[in-house]
UniProtKB/TrEMBL annotation:
It comes from Paracoccus marinaquae. Pfam families: ADH_N_2 (PF16884), ADH_zinc_N (PF00107). Keywords: Oxidoreductase. Residues 12-334 form the Enoyl reductase (ER) domain. InterPro entries: ADH-like_C (IPR013149), ADH_N_2 (IPR041694), ER (IPR020843), MDR_fam (IPR045010). This is NADP-dependent oxidoreductase.
Length: 339
């Protein structure tokens, strides 16, 4: 069994010292446990937070512990009443070939999942995050304008497509012309602005002639700076993530003075509603509603999905850095083993 353990907490971007690949025997399940062969591993921005011992909503991974991660795999042997040998499951198997589970946070893979790995993306945690944040906090209304960054990632792509189905004007923000083209031509967004362009803030303003009613916050940083003056009275901000700063050892190092006063004054004057959420903590009970509503849209091709698959567990550390840098194109998944 190969597994990546946390070797050293990174300062800034994770490097060769961050993870250590260990090899050992395949573990044997005890009473009430099962052994699962991991086939697909999800790589997600939140993983950067687990590498840090900064205070957060979830405990960090300990030094020497297996790196956490959502997985799709197959039960190899079982001493658990609910999970039989041969069953496909969605679980948190981590960055390794095989995992032992006691059934916590484990679900049977839906029989009609179009591709098994999609349970980690469009019909899994990121897709559900988009749906929950948009419907529960964003409260979209036809004719409004929505802005979402990381527009071709699994969260942003779903947010924008659902909002289009609700009749909103949808403006994406993404890194580079290729992703922007994809957001418009494949995902059906009305416009998509490259955040790396020198005149980004000006272009964004031009793309939202009637201001912004929903800003689905995925990135923070300069995208948020450009959005803030464009927020309409009564705008809503589902505060989902701030990936632009996940690698910053010190949040004050983004080259800007403390702007809290400015930000809060703007929110007050415009009566902005901002609510943070951790998808399964806050909205987990709505997952069946999400599946009922969105799985048929995916099956019918009315929601398109882009997956960015990398083969080989050994490539997981590099691939996580790609996600944090924006070098992924679509949902980043590691194929650990062929089906
Ligand atoms: P993605 O697969 O879209 O990967 C992250 C993307 O962020 C990159 O591809 C890049 O896209 C963009 N990005 C990175 N740095 C910057 C930057 N400096 N400025 C602008 N964009 C940047 O991620 P997900 O769709 O999986 O996640 C999106 C967000 O949702 C994250 O913040 C994540 O933490 C959050 N999240 C929150 C959950 C919750 O429960 N609250 C649950 C799941 C996700 P590009 O090249 O286009 O810039």
């Amino acid at each position: 069994n190969r597994r990546f353990v946390l070797n050293r907490r990174p300062q800034g971007e994770p490097d060769e010292q961050t993870f250590r690949l260990e090899t050992g025997p395949v573990p044997v399940p005890g009473e009430g446990e099962f052994l699962v062969r991991n086939h697909y591993l999800s790589l997600d921005p939140y993983m950067r937070g687990r590498l840090s011992d900064r205070k957060s909503y979830a405990a960090p991974v300990g030094i020497g512990e297996t790196m956490v991660g959502g997985t799709v795999g197959r039960v190899v042997s079982s001493r658990h009443p609910d999970h039989a040998e041969g069953d496909w499951v969605v679980t948190v198997g981590g960055w390794q070939d095989y995992a032992i589970s006691n059934g916590a946070l484990t679900f049977p893979l839906a029989a009609d999942m179009p591709n098994k790995s999609w349970a980690l993306g469009v019909l899994g945690m990121p897709g559900f995050t988009a749906w929950a944040g948009l419907t529960q906090i964003g409260q979209p209304k036809a004719g409004e304008t929505l802005v979402v960054a990381a527009a071709t990632g699994p969260v942003g792509a779903m947010v924008g497509q659902l909002a289009k189905h609700c009749g909103l004007r949808v403006v994406g923000v993404a890194g580079g012309p290729e992703k922007c083209r994809h957001a418009v031509e494949v995902q059906g967004f009305d416009a998509c602005i490259d955040h790396r362009a020198a005149d980004f803030a000006q272009k964004l303003a031009q793309a939202v002639p009637e201001g912004i009613d929903i800003y689905f916050e995925n990135v923070g940083g300069k995208v948020f700076d450009a959005v803030m003056p464009l927020l309409n009275s009564g705008a809503r901000i589902p505060l989902c993530g701030t990936v632009a700063t996940y690698n910053s050892p010190d949040l004050a190092d983004e080259g800007r003075a403390d702007r809290t006063g400015l930000v809060m004054a703007r929110f007050l004057q415009q009566r902005i509603v901002l609510r943070g959420f951790i998808v399964f903590d806050d909205f987990g009970h709505l997952y069946p509603d999400f599946m009922r509503e969105v799985a048929p849209l995916v099956a019918a091709g009315r929601i398109v999905y882009t997956e960015d698959m990398t083969d080989g567990l050994e490539n997981a550390p590099r691939a996580l850095n790609q996600v944090l840098r924006g070098e992924n194109f679509g949902k980043k998944v590691i194929r650990i083993a062929a089906e």
